[in-house]
Amino acid sequence: MTAGFGTWDYVVFISYAILILGVGLWVSRDKKGHQKNAEDYFLASKSLPWWAIGASLIAANISAEQFIGMSGSGFASGLAIASYEWMAAITLIIVGKYFLPIFIEKGLYTIPEFVEKRYSTNLKTILAVFWIALYVFVNLTTVLYLGSLALNTILGIPLIYGVIGLALFAAAYSLYGGLSAVAWTDVIQVIFLVLGGLVTTYLALNTVSGGEGFISGLTTVFEEVPERFEMILDKSNPEYKNLPGIGVLVGGMWVANLYYWGFNQYIIQRTLAAKSLKEAQKGILFAAVLKLIIPLIVVIPGIAAYVMINDPEIMARLGDVAARNLPSLEQADKAYPWLLQFLPTGLKGLAFAALAAAIVSSLASMLNSTSTIFTMDIYKQYINKTASDKATVNTGRISAFVALVIACIVAPLLGNLDQAFQFIQEYTGIVSPGILAVFLLGLFWKKTTNKAAIIGALASIPIAMYFKVAPKGWSTSPFFVDVPFMDQMGLTLLLTMLVIAIFSYVQHKGADDEKGIPITKQLFKTSPLFNIGSFAVMIILTVLYALFW
Q1: Among residues 167, 168, 352, 439, which one has the fewest Cβ atoms lying within 10 Å of its Cβ?
Q2: Is the pTM of this model over 0.85?
């Protein structure tokens, strides 16, 4: 057993890299006599089938923050972190039924474009600038940092070289080909991601069981640490502050999921590129089904790693390699890279290809969406309103490149993040409730006004910051105590919606806003396949929560 790569590991990984680059560049080529226009570059010519949409949604979503960050949270807190994945399955169904019909009917390129059609250009610009900053300084930098951390842990590659290597890999095909290249390579990335992830899970559980297989390993882990399989944590659990019991099911988790899956450009852009609404909804349903198995490949390995390092017999069996980069409760994010050290030659290359697939696909998605928002909502709005197709596509490529350079500079500065997944959720959670309130009321309450939405969006930040920084002990009132960040998100959403509702009513005296969206039953009518599939997903989730409550 060796910690580094063997010959076959390099063969597998290099083959994966060549395959992705080859497919990406092949689908990126211009058809004879046709030059890419904005729809080709940013929406893949609106030609994506359901299976490509579903695969691309998962590939864009699952990144280093899941493989490394969520495994780290599994190591520290257990299966409870899987609520982010399982509740996302329900959220996807809600998005497919109630949000997508409105977005596709309006022919959107970007989420900020919806804000302009429903509210105003000013609010659209405010949110466009916010999203660009969020993608560049939070999403891109975190993915690059965690990916390079994995390279450093497994292969000893210096952090800065890992950052540059991953950035160049993602840029090689995504900058040239746009969403089409990203989406079609994602189909391949998901195969590597799932297969490689399952291999790591199997071998971790097989090690725990002393070579007796997957089921025996799962049973052993459950018997050794039953507390790590509680979905609903009580207040005595040290991780309650991150996953506050029943509040996960009925509180702020909905804010995080609805914001991420419903109004996040690099996620929703795939569905906007569908052949039709029904095709987009089938893709959403496919992604919801895949979400059910994701905890098996990103959470269970973290729990298995926790059992392994606390069992002297297993550690002795693993040999000297086990002492390298040992994870701990203080450095939980080392759990997944630590596990990869023990895979046999060849499979290690496959598992690492899965991790690379998760990282690179997310980077490519974020780059494409950052360039889409900048080009369509900033460049064409304020810099060159009459830009040609060539100028528009070139601007998209240049803006993506600039975003990547900035992220490469910032990523190494992140330092030692512990439980990066929780870190990202917590700090995104300061701004997401306000934006979610603006969108929900804009979609489903015709009385919402532009002025009220702007006031609500701006007010949501001090409201969120108050809950985050208010000192303990000011009062016995729940509004003054130190509440978990997920509860903070729920409270911030409700208070922001109240602010928007009050100002909307004062401005129009209860009358509908002129830009309010007419809602009809026909708009939300879905196919029997979507309805049956959605019902099946909800039954499976009910069983899972009943088993691990």
Answers
A1: 168
A2: no
